[in-house]
Amino acid sequence: MAGPTQKELAQAALARIEAHEALCLERFSNIERRLDSGAKNFEKLERMIFGLYALVLGSVLVPFLLSMG
Fold this sequence. Notes:
The protein contains one helix and no strands. It has one helix spanning 6-68. The chain is mainly α and 69 residues long. The longest helix is centred in the middle third of the chain and has 63 residues, at 6-68. Helices cover 91% and strands 0% of the residues.
């Protein structure tokens, strides 16, 4: 009894490759979504840090300016 033909092997390989590509596409989509979510979190942290800069600068400058007047 003969084994699978070249055509059958090629079709099986193609089916496995297509399944692998579909799985990779799903994984890539999940990674992309998580990266976008992380970028939004970093933007929020950046705004908080800039607010903290303003608070620190204000807490240093206000007493200094009040002591001058």
